[in-house]
């Protein structure tokens, strides 16, 4: 739980600080090369979801964001794995970052535009650090699921092995508790060798 909170807080603060700096130093539509054609700053205001998807439905994404945020907070105490804690921390921090923009930025509460400024020219989208955190959490989810790592940090194969061991122990206990079979009673000698009738 502590790791989740720390990761979420770091993601949120870095995202919000970056957005404040972008708004203060760039004008909307301005493009600045950071790593040549590999990475650029391109300040836009996004009314949609991550990577500018669904512009025009900001209030819907605000409601969905609040719902998902509530679910993550409610589910967090069940997480015992460090990897899953990092995953949910990335997701929580990213959701909070973009939801803050939608709730408190122009043009109004619940319909605010998200500040996007990162652009990789070979990709068609402009995004922000909160989007990066959300996508990273999804990638980590796939990795953990493929590897069979549960919320408690244990692999599915380990759980199956434990179940087999438990089943074996139960079977052994059942066998040990069964009463021993009664020994067969020898038939009387007379029954085995009946006397011949006297003539």
TrEMBL record:
It comes from Leifsonia aquatica (Corynebacterium aquaticum). This is Lipoprotein signal peptidase. It is a multi-pass membrane protein. Residues 190-199 have a biased composition (Basic and acidic residues). GO terms for molecular function: aspartic-type endopeptidase activity. NCBIfam families: lspA (TIGR00077). It is found in: Cell membrane. Belongs to the peptidase A8 family. Residues 159-172 have a biased composition (Acidic residues). Pathway: Protein modification; lipoprotein biosynthesis (signal peptide cleavage). Keywords: Aspartyl protease, Cell membrane, Hydrolase, Membrane, Protease, Transmembrane, Transmembrane helix. The active site is at 116, 131. This protein specifically catalyzes the removal of signal peptides from prolipoproteins. The lineage of its organism: Bacteria, Bacillati, Actinomycetota, Actinomycetes, Micrococcales. The chain crosses the membrane at residues 48-75, 82-100, 120-146.
């Amino acid at each position: 739980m502590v790791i989740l909170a720390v990761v979420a807080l770091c993601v949120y603060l870095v995202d919000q600080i970056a957005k404040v700096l972008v708004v203060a130093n760039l004008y909307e539509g301005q493009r600045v090369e950071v790593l040549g054609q590999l990475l650029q700053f391109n300040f836009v205001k996004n009314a949609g979801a991550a990577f500018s998807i669904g512009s025009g439905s900001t209030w819907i994404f605000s409601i969905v964001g609040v719902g998902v945020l509530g679910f993550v907070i409610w589910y967090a105490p069940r997480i015992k794995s460090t990897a899953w804690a990092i995953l949910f921390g990335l997701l929580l921090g990213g959701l909070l970052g973009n939801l803050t923009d939608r709730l408190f930025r122009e043009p109004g509460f619940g319909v605010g535009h998200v500040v996007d400024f990162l652009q990789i020219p070979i990709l068609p989208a402009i995004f922000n650090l909160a989007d990066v955190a959300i996508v990273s959490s999804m990638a980590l989810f796939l990795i953990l699921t493929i590897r069979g790592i549960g919320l408690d940090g244990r692999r599915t194969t380990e759980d199956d092995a434990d179940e087999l061991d438990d089943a074996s122990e139960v079977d052994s206990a059942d066998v040990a508790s069964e009463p021993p079979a009664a020994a067969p009673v020898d038939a009387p000698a007379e029954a085995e060798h009946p006397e011949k009738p006297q003539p």
